[in-house]
Amino acid sequence: MDYHVKSLDLADKGKLRIEWASMSMPVLNKIKERFRKERPLDGVVLGACLHVTTETAALVQTLKAGGASVYLCASNPLSTQDDVAASLVKHDEIPVFAIKGEDNETYYEHLRAVLDAKPTITMDDGADLVSTLHKERKELLDKIIGGTEETTTGVIRLKAMAEDGVLRYPIIAVNDANTKHLFDNRYGTGQSTLDGIIRATNRLIAGSIFVVCGYGWCGRGVAMRAKGLGARVIVTEVDPLKALEAVMDGYEVMPLEEASRIGDFFCTVTGDIHVIRKEHFLNMKDGAIVANSGHFNVELDLEGLEDVTKEKRIIRDFVEEYTLNNERRIYVLGQGRLVNLAAAEGHPSSVMDMSFANQALCAEYMVKQGSALEKKVYGVPEEIDKEIARLKLESMGIRIDTLTEEQAKYLSSWEMGT
């Protein structure tokens, strides 16, 4: 079996950590039980480009239980948990190509290693696997049934590909499922981002000015958790509706030009490029801490920062100190990559339970329906979304009401009024 991980000596530690995460993933465990019996993915070669974490391990184990031959690489150079990668190779015989801290060249070598397996379904997080496939390995495209995409950034890229008419197979936007973005993006990103910032810096959040750039579901989560820890939260936005919502939620809203002068912590969660630019870095006060929790590190203009920097050093793990030409010091966390995975362990497993349940069930859906779909980006089928929510509630011991016959009739009719 071909693979590339840091060391198989880490495998036993990784196995225990995967077991610990799986304990909080009851929905995915139920799906795994059914997959093991029904084998809906028999014959599928599944190429996955995901964050190689304990939760991802539980997902790929589920996919393998369903009959798929899974090949896995990392979707971010700093998000790999090396012991997990080793465990999947040694204990599950799943080819993994991922090493924490790999350089850009190795990152793309790993993507190509997954594509060498000639996948029939892709499972992406950020769309690097799909875009590399479309650019470099077009001969493989005709055999692909379909794919799934995990994150906001990837969905944006894939919709752009579909709009340009270059997307060659259907893809389900798992990120857009209610049981994904309403929970994973908000509660998962919210908690894990603050976790990453605190682990990297050991600085007190209470009493600080915390600037959140972007008020999508991830930004909502980060703002909520920073406020909960006692920060004064400022939101920056370009969308007037989201900005208005942030105001109504009790946050200050202002342009980044103004916020950059007063913030203690900055975190980007927009999915766009160069949100914090050279002029913003120059505005920041001495000691400002800058992090990114969007998928790619392009949200921070690090080249622009280098242009105005006279000295640089690593002062703590995942903390890089930039001394600017104006003598102020700026601290960038995790090389500007996803701080929740670069400096911490990513989302808690109980929230990834729903996200990865979506991935597993959408892979099954693609096997059954992929040949009938157009070459575009689809939402998660409503029945899958609702089934995952139902299973999650059931696992939590929570029961809900059902409509009476009279209520159902009322909601489906137009005759009855006041």
UniProtKB/TrEMBL annotation:
It catalyses: S-adenosyl-L-homocysteine + H2O = L-homocysteine + adenosine. Its cofactor is NAD(+). Its EC number is 3.13.2.1. The keyword Amino-acid biosynthesis does not apply. PROSITE patterns: ADOHCYASE_1, ADOHCYASE_2. Transmembrane segments: none annotated. Keywords: Cytoplasm, Hydrolase, NAD, One-carbon metabolism. It is found in: Cytoplasm. One of its GO terms (molecular function) is adenosylhomocysteinase activity. GO terms for cellular component: cytosol. GO terms for biological process: L-homocysteine biosynthetic process; one-carbon metabolic process; S-adenosylmethionine cycle. Its main location: cytoplasm. InterPro entries: Adenosylhomocyst_ase-like_sf (IPR042172), Adenosylhomocysteinase-like (IPR000043), Ado_hCys_hydrolase_NAD-bd (IPR015878), NAD(P)-bd_dom_sf (IPR036291), S-Ado-L-homoCys_hydrolase_CS (IPR020082). NAD(+) binds at residues 151-153, 185, 214-221, 237, 293-295, 340, 347. Substrate binds at T53, D125, E150, K180, D184. Binds 1 NAD(+) per subunit. Pathway: Amino-acid biosynthesis; L-homocysteine biosynthesis; L-homocysteine from S-adenosyl-L-homocysteine: step 1/1. Residues 185-346 form the S-adenosyl-L-homocysteine hydrolase NAD binding domain. PANTHER family: ADENOSYLHOMOCYSTEINASE. NCBIfam families: ahcY, PRK05476.2-3. May play a key role in the regulation of the intracellular concentration of adenosylhomocysteine. Belongs to the adenosylhomocysteinase family. This is Adenosylhomocysteinase. It comes from Dissulfuribacter thermophilus.
